[in-house]
Amino acid sequence: MHIQTILTNYSSFQEQTLTNRFFKHEDILPLIKQLPPTFTISTLGNSVKGRSINAVKWGNGKTKVMLWSQMHGDEATGSMALFDLFNFLQQDNQTVKLLDENCQLLMIPMVNPDGAAVFTRRNAQQIDINRDFIQTASPEAKILKQIRADFEPNFGFNLHDQTTLWSVDETLKPATLSYLAPAYDKALSVNQTRENAMLVIADMFKELDPLLPQHIGLFDDEYEPRAFGDNFQHAGTSTILIEAGGYPNDPEKQQIRKYYFASILSGLTSIASKSYENQNTANYFAIPQNNKQIFHMMIHNLILDGIKVSVGVNYDECPNDNGMSTYKSYSIQDIGDLSFCDAYEVYDAQHCQLKGTITFNKAADFELLKDERSILAFKDGILTV
């Protein structure tokens, strides 16, 4: 079944209870517990604060695939996509049959439940779990490391979110999705394990690029000796990184999750059918690179100190104390010639009046008026108009 056909029926398996990025451990436990007997549920261990870290097994095939999400508590798109996948795997179609006959999936939808509780990247010890492979000081890292050793997966899907400021080279468009076969050494060598991951990604890109043209990039290829993906690749698990970035007018990533799900499914189908064996690594390396040529906001034709400039404004997304929402703190990130850049929102300051000051690397604190009407205003980094 073609991925576009599957997505036309997306609403039939989209997990309807997950509508934003702020769901918690207690929200997903009932969803896991209600899975039918074709799924095997197990508790792998507990987080620092005693929350269970659960695994879901499905499928009767020989090829083992491990998928894990939300190592970073504020990166929830992969988790939403996994719950969509759980629902999809309960449908009766040829793709589900192909996966069942050829793959055994082990899926961990929330590795860092303590981080998810307060919507922060790190765990309750303030440790970045994805930089804890070597020391394994966190219980979450110990659990993830051990389950890979026990399960011995042939393939792995490492599911993350990236900043919305990544763009796709030569497109000036947000990198809505990014893929990578992580390096296993500093030389960025390619052995059969890593090559297999590259070939699966080439298949994924072939399927997804027509759905998201110019919005898919290749994530930064830099060896990180403390990261799980790099070390799992070294251990013989062909590891595929998926990152969810930005998409216009989709702050809670409900559109992105659909394409994220499609990425996972196309990768699994490639593995189950072995179509990746007919791919070429040249198609992997042809995927455009990520870069940073977009801003959250950009203002053109602004007169500062007697010269006409463009101004790039970005925000940091900060969790509120309840862990159920965020606030945005805006700052001035560039001033000058930004003709080679784009932004999610673009303003033309021609014939506008500026009130306040614009200072590089400082909080946005100004107002832009046109015909005495405020069209854009910030106070101490907070957007007011």
UniProtKB/TrEMBL annotation:
SUPFAM superfamilies: Zn-dependent exopeptidases. GO terms for molecular function: metallocarboxypeptidase activity; zinc ion binding. Pfam families: Peptidase_M14. Residues 14-271 form the Peptidase M14 domain. This is DUF2817 domain-containing protein. It comes from the Bacteria. Belongs to the peptidase M14 family. The active site is at E243. One of its GO terms (biological process) is proteolysis.
